[in-house]
Write a structure and sequence with these properties.
Layout: H1 7-23, H2 27-34, H3 38-46, H4 53-63, H5 67-80, H6 91-96, H7 127-145, H8 169-201, H9 209-213, E1 253-260, E2 263-270, E3 275-281, E4 288-293, E5 296-301, E6 310-311, E7 315-316, E8 324-328, E9 334-336
Antiparallel strand pairs: 1-2, 2-3, 3-6, 3-7, 4-5, 4-8, 8-9
Helix pairs in contact: 1-4, 1-5, 2-3, 4-5
Length: 338
């Protein structure tokens, strides 16, 4: 095991080894029973790679080990294992979801400093009262500025003609315009806030009907949330190891298979990851496997004596039929899937 392996991870690896030893299973038999390749189990049991949770469950079932204790050790090891840092938070999304209480509200109307116009119920100065006061002031000014003529008694100014008004007309004259302006301002402010809230919270449709109709399988750039343990999808999986990225095991199926001089060559496909890879079984040192999808090509080799299988890194595909696997044996024989 690596020297830098954490104590909790090392304890988990040792417990897995003991489970395999007690069961008497070889790595090849363990690979056949669990769905994970022999090479993957070599990495898991050497401490070079943390086994996925599904692989731990499959190991417990294949070896007859208590899954509770094994799972507990896996959780402790998983906490100490290196994980990629989380993706940075999208600042745009965070700003769009900011509470409306942080939005500045534009003041409606003129300045209110020095008066009580901003208070509820205050309607402002009466126009009728202002007109009366203005008339009285003007009359007094005229009387004061006109010199009295000797011998003639001062005559009071004729009273202003009184116009009959309806009861409450003065109140309507005072409150009507001001009340209407207040109502209009409040309505405009409410509509402005509602429009702002809608524009800030509506992110628009995530998919268009045309895109949904034209996609027979998950897109290679799908933004659908990935299941726990799966670390890539589509183009982000190209060149990556299927087991490391969580695309193997129960999430993978054999899409195509053929035999070349006794060696089995397969196309392995994961719909969840929208990716495929090649695998050879019953192989020997010097045998190679290649997978291609369009212009993308990946290759795997059997390099260690005693290994009987090998697989390639992944290539992104829209469907399993887009990938093709070929085997080239050390003897020179060659064969490909359909």
């Amino acid at each position: 095991m690596p020297d830098e392996l954490d104590a909790r991870a090392a304890e988990f690896v040792v417990h897995m080894r003991r489970s395999v030893d007690r069961s008497g299973l070889s790595l090849t038999a363990l690979a056949e029973r669990t769905g994970y390749s022999r090479t993957s189990w070599e990495r898991f049991l050497d401490g070079r790679l943390l086994a996925p949770r599904r692989a731990v469950d499959a190991l417990a079932e294949a070896t007859g080990t208590s899954p509770v204790h094994l799972t507990t050790l896996w959780e402790l090891a998983e906490q100490s294992w290196h994980h990629p840092e989380p993706a940075p938070t999208d600042r745009t999304t965070t700003q769009l979801r900011a509470p409306l209480t942080t939005l500045p509200v534009r003041e409606v109307g003129g300045p209110t400093e020095g008066n009580s116009w901003g208070l509820a119920g205050y309607r402002g100065p009466s126009k009728a009262r202002d007109a009366t006061n203005a008339g009285t002031s003007n009359a007094g000014a005229t009387e004061a500025s006109s010199p009295a003529i000797p011998g003639n008694p001062a005559t009071p100014p004729p009273p202003a003609p009184s116009t009959p008004t309806e009861p409450g007309a003065e109140g309507r004259a005072e409150g009507g315009p001001r009340r209407w302006l207040t109502f209009a301002a409040a309505t405009a402010a409410t509509l402005a806030l509602a429009t702002t809230a809608f524009l800030l919270t509506d992110t628009g449709p995530t998919t268009t009907p045309a895109a949904a109709t034209n996609s027979p399988s998950p897109s290679t750039d799908s933004r659908t949330p990935l299941p726990p343990g799966v670390k890539c999808a589509g183009t982000t999986c190209t060149g990556e190891d299927a087991e490391t990225m969580g695309c193997g095991g129960p999430l993978a199926t054999t899409a195509e298979r053929t035999t070349v001089a006794g060696t089995v060559v397969e196309v392995r496909y994961s719909r969840t990851c929208a990716a495929a890879w090649g695998r050879i079984l019953r192989a020997g040192p010097g045998d190679t496997v290649q997978v291609s999808a369009g212009r993308d090509r990946q290759r795997g080799d059997v390099t260690v004596a005693g290994d009987t299988d090998a697989y390639t890194p992944m290539v992104a595909v829209r469907a399993a039929r887009d990938a093709r696997a070929c085997a080239v044996l050390a003897s020179g024989e060659r064969g490909c899937t359909q």
